[in-house]
Structures are given as structure tokens and as C-alpha cells.
Amino acid sequence: MSTWYWYTGWLPSLLAVIGNGLVIYLILARRRLRTTNNRFVLSLAMADFCVGACFYPGHAICHFLLTSCNQMIRDDIAVLMIYSSVSNLCAMTLDRYIAIVRPLRYMSLMTARRATMLTVAAWIIPLSIYFIPSVCASLDLFRINLTISVIIWTTIFEFIPCVVLLMATTQAVITSRKHYRRDTLLSSQIRYNQPNLKCPRSASSTKVMGTVVATFLICYAVEVYSSFCYFTALCVMNKNLYSVVRFLVIVNSAANPIAYALFKRDIKKELGKMFGKKYVGTRRVSEPTTSV
């Protein structure tokens, strides 16, 4: 593995642990943050926290401190956390997609029970499809065709999520822009007829959803390319590319809490209170489950 990876990998790992740990603490400690939407944010933050805590530290400990290390089991745990992060991002994107594209049906479609089931499924799917078979094969409990298994895992947790997330986010952004233009026109008409009436602006999840998904697609573009090289003979995987893939995976988990702090209004507000800053932002949304 490249030398630069060992010198720089600790920084995004530390940011992922601290940032996602802070998000987890805020959601668990602040009752007003315990909304349906934040169930998905909490689950994704837990997965990203585990990526930061397990991925690079596991490599570093095995590389520098231990003379013997079960590399296969270590990698299985790290990849489980990465795939759990991907599946939780898909679950959160589905929630925000419904809130943006079908706002009038959101409350009936995304109940607390369904949100819980969806987050649990986001952890069970990578556990059952990847981790259990891979660990059993590593312990020689049974044999699997590694090539076919890698193709299946890569398709389910890399190729399909990238395509689905791109399509869902694109449609959500288009729909959100239509809603914004409609609301802007309506607000201008109301202000013209009643100048003293202040019209509240509707909340939008587009910035959070778009930022998180865009970061994921940018970071995982190299991962998809490396997988393409692995399956075909059109390109060659080298040491530097392998290190870049690992580094960007950690960066993706470290970037998510930054997106929450910058664009998610309820978390931004609580961070302002925590650090003694007066919250300045748009008015509170009437429905907390769709607030951002």
C-alpha cells in the first residue's frame, strides 16, 4: 500500500469518528431531533462512525503493531461497515425522495414503524448478503466462488446504488426546483396583496440529499473504476489506485456530518446552541419530520 496513505489516512478517519459521533450524540441527546427523518441520519452516522473507527485503524494496527493478523476477517468487518454505509445512504435517500416528490403522502407512507424497518433492513442486507458468507468462507466453513461472489457484491453495493442514487437525486432536484418556483411566485403574489404579511418558506431536503449523494458518487467513482479494472482486462489496478480507493471511502464517511452541519437546519441549530452561537436561519417548519 502507498506510503502517502499511511500518513494521510488518519485525518479523514479522525474526522469521520468525531463528526459522526457528534451527530449521533445530538440526535440521541436532543428530543427535538428525534424525528422520522433523523432516524435515517442517525443510522447512517452510526455506519460512517464505524467506517472511520474500523477501516484505517484496522489496517494501521495490523500493519504496524501486530506481527500476525487475520487480514481476511479484518477486511470483512471493514467492508461490512462500508456496505452498511451505502445501504443506509440508500434508505435515507428514499426517505428524502418521498418527502420531496410526494410531500402530501409522506406522513402516511413513511411512518415511524416503516422508518425503523427500513433502517434495520439497511443493516441486515449487507450482513446477510456479504458478511456472513464471506466470514464463513474465510473460516473454511464452506466454499464460495470468489469471482462470482465479488461480482454479486460489487453489483449490489456499488453499481446499483450509484445508478439509483443518481437517478433519484436528479428527479428530486428537478421536482424541488419546480416547487421552489411555484412557492416563490405564490409568495410574491401574497406580498403584493398583503405587504405586511410574512410568508414562511417551505423546508427543502434537496441541499442535504444532493450534497451527501454527490460526495458519495464522486468518492465511489474511483471505486467503480477499480472494480471495472478488476472484472475486465481493459485497465490495470496499481498500488496507488488501490490506496486512492481506500482513502476516498474514508473521506466519504467524513464528509457526511459536514453536510449535516452546513445544510440540515435542525442539526445546524443544535450545533449553534452547543457552541454558544445564536442560530440565524429560516423560520421553523410546521412539520418537524420533514425539516432539514
Automatic annotation (TrEMBL):
Annotated family: Belongs to the G-protein coupled receptor 1 family.
Gene3D superfamilies tied to this protein: Rhodopsin 7-helix transmembrane proteins (1.20.1070.10)
Predominant location: membrane
SUPFAM superfamilies attached to this UniProt entry: Family A G protein-coupled receptor-like (SSF81321)
Chain segments annotated as transmembrane: 6-28, 40-66, 78-94, 115-132, 144-168, 208-233, 245-263
Entry keyword set: Cell membrane, G-protein coupled receptor, Membrane, Receptor, Transducer, Transmembrane, Transmembrane helix
Location in or out of the cell: Cell membrane
Cited Pfam families: 7tm_1
Membrane topology: Multi-pass membrane protein
GO-annotated cellular components: plasma membrane
Domain G-protein coupled receptors family 1 profile: from-to ranges: 19-260
Annotated protein name in UniProt: G-protein coupled receptors family 1 profile domain-containing protein
